[in-house]
Amino acid sequence: MATMQTPNGFNLDTSGQRVVVDPVTRIEGHMRCEVNVDENNIIRNAVSTGTMWRGLEVILKGRDPRDAWAFTQRICGVCTGTHALTSVRAVEDALGIDIPENANSIRNIMQLSLQIHDHLVHFYHLHALDWVNPVNALKADPKATSELQQKVAPHHPKSSPGYFRDIQSRLRKFVESGQLGPFKNGYWTNPAYLLPPEADLMAVTHYLEALDFQKEIMTTRTIFGGKDIHPNWLVGGVPCAINIDGDLAAGAPINMDRLNYVKGVIDRSLEFVKNVYIPDILAIGGLYKSWLYGGGLSSQSVLAYGDIPDRANDYSAENLMMPRGAIINGKLEEVHEVDLRDPEQIQEFVPHSWYAYPDEKKGLHPWDGVTEPNYVLGANAKGTSTNIIELDEAAKYSWIKAPRWRGHAMEVGPLARYIVGYAQGHEYFTEQINRTLRTLDVPVDALFSTLGRTAARALEAEWAAEMQVYFFDKLIANIKAGDTATANVEKFDPQTWPSEVKGVGFTEAPRGALAHWIRIKDTKIDNYQCVVPTTWNGSPRDNEGNIGAFEASLMNTKMERPEEPVEILRTLHSFDPCLACSTHVMGPDGEEMAEIKVR
Predict the structure, then answer these.
(1) How many CB atoms lie within 10 A of CB 300?
(2) Which end of the chain, N or C, is surrounded by fewer C-beta atoms within 10 Å?
(3) pTM confidence score
């Protein structure tokens, strides 16, 4: 039996049946997952692989740092603005640029809008179908569905039997036509689906409602950033001028009419989260309480950089409304300080990544990072370089590097933020968590699970919606006091810059801790490194054999039918993987590496 124990506490067994999921769909980017299951269909080994490389760090070298935000937000088609925000913060940190208070409030509103939007899209359109069976919804009684809706979400106005009957009729025509669209290729007969038909019909109905609402919520970034999904940003502030009495036709980007529209979107976002999203999570979670596996030690070590500064230009932990800290091995009584500048804290390793380092036994802090592709399959891999049958986890097997915090594999994301906040006694987070645990009647260790990860995202959407109200009110009060400044351009001219500087910018992206490190030399980018949430969560093994959060979260999970990997998708989707962000589709010479057909 091929077994080994990892330093972070997992017993890996590479014998047994090998199950391959390639590609993992309903995510951003390209991902492959391989697991070994024993005779009881329990996962005993997991291998998570990022299967694309784009080299954004290489593309940025030699460019104007003031333009970096426009390139970095193209890393991803989902969390675009959060990369732009991180980039302008990195440049501002390097050059010592302060931003106006209005710019801080607008940036926070845009970032919080993205958090809510991303969490809604993640649950309803990328993750819900791991728990919800739309075909089973055809068996539901619309009257009973209405009663369920009124019980779990009494404040949602769309709850009549006729409303659910109409949705069910639309769904039936859709299914009977044979054109299932987003519901195609689901494992709808798998016993891993536990919801009664009425809960399935309610959830599918909200799937459609969320699809409509996401078109509205994105308008906040459109107004402040001029467009979406790639809004405009600016080193030194935000690019939108404020003229309360201005005429839009005369070129005043932000007037009272636009601000009132933003306020309406903020109010409706809070309403949707409270009346639909949170009740759905509680209703579905209450019916899946037996599914409190997946997560294990992967979420016992968690990391959060913190975000949403209350006051402009103060990025201390005390001024961040989203918590910062690190917890190791589930010791909630000890929250460690996080310093992104400390080379002893954050290092990236590549022994199992398709990159070359000067010394692959040593990790590199991102300021000294190297992004040099080195695509070589291991000796024990099966297949060819363009048709992989099975990877060799003892060798290189992923385009994702392995970042470590003081040598530890860490989980990042909403769950990590909530665990850190809970350990620190963050009042709002603690109240939310305790309320959720009481409602579901589960102990606190239920947090450390796939369900806990999914619930944390919904709770954070509620918090973010409340924080949007706070910063909008703050913005309006500042404008009424006569301050309309949105940008500081004093150091925008490169001739005012030192010959050589470095900086780091960070945020908490919807998927977790995100930071960009930049070195500027003679007014051009000399080195640029991004360490993104899925680099942390999706990392391969490191030099010591520690496995990353994706791989660890799958360990000891029982599969109902290995040939129908509902459980693998359910757990991986709970992280909302963004492989496009984490992989750094082309070969080093531009040749096609592989062709993937999704049936």
Answers:
(1) 22
(2) C
(3) 0.93
